[in-house]
Structure formats: C-alpha cells, structure tokens
C-alpha cells in the first residue's frame, strides 16, 4: 500500500514539473516578437510552444497548462508578446488567437489520437490543423471585427500568418518527434 501511494505522488510531481516546464517555455517565448502594426497582432513563438504543450501533455494536462497561461495573462501579467497582458486583450485583434490557444489542445490531441505519432507527417498534420489552421481561423474573426471589415477580409489578414505558422508547426513536429524518441516527455494522456 505504501509503495502505491509513493508512486501516485511521484506521478503527480512529474506531471506538475512537465506542466511548469511547458508553461515557462510559453512565457519565455513571448519575449521573442516581431510587431506587425498594420494588423495589430505580432508574430510570436508562443503559438509554437502552445502546440508543443498540447502534444507533450495531452488533452487534459495540455489544456490546463494553456488555461493557466491565459488566466495569468487575463490577470494582467505581461506574458504575451511585447509585454502585454490583461483581460482587455480578449477584446482586441489578438482575442481570437488567444481563444484559439485555449481550444487547440483538444484539436491537436484528437488528431493525434486518430492518426497516432508513429510518423513525422502525422504529427505535422496534427500541429498544422490544430495549431496553424485553427488558431489563425479563430484569429480571423477578431481581426475582421476590430478592423470593421468582412470575415473574408479577416481570413485574408490571418492568412498573412500562415507561412510563418506553418514553419513553426514543422519545427514543433521535429522537436516533438525527437524528444518523444528519447522519452524526454512521457505519455500523459
């Protein structure tokens, strides 16, 4: 009985450590930014680490890690690109992207469950659809709304980010495949 309790506590500590590591990487990646004044939304690395968080931690723990990050941002901590923070960001051109962050772990993990992670291409498909396409799709809604234009115009504005975010999905899939191969991040689903 005692051995079972120790294993359970160790399991929780490992999960908590992985969540803290991924949360830290999401926060630190916010310091790398390229402002795009015309759109009001900068180019960031945070969405790449959001994708990796979903991949490494799974639906449950990935969701809670990303939710924790968004709660900290909503409380006003300057954790987003350019030192931005506050609940008001949900009501800005960046708001749709943040909502996309919130739900992308479900999409990425659902695709990974269906396709598996045996090949690089399957991982890339999950990151591309759940990270690149979904996050930019959600962002297009608020881009259109806050630029007072049609949703089609919002999609065109969000399409600006597709090549850059596709490159991030490619890098994230490589990182995921390499670290999973060496069992750096164990299964948490």
Automatic annotation (TrEMBL):
Statement: the UniProt record of this protein carries the keyword rRNA processing: no
Subcellular location(s) of the protein: Cell membrane
Chief location bin: membrane
Similarity section: Belongs to the BioY family.
Chain segments annotated as transmembrane: 20-49, 61-81, 87-112, 124-146, 158-176
Keywords per UniProt: Cell membrane, Membrane, Transmembrane, Transmembrane helix, Transport
Keyword Transmembrane: yes
Any Pfam family hit: BioY
InterPro entries documented for this protein: BioY
Membrane topology: Multi-pass membrane protein
Name recorded for this polypeptide: Biotin transporter
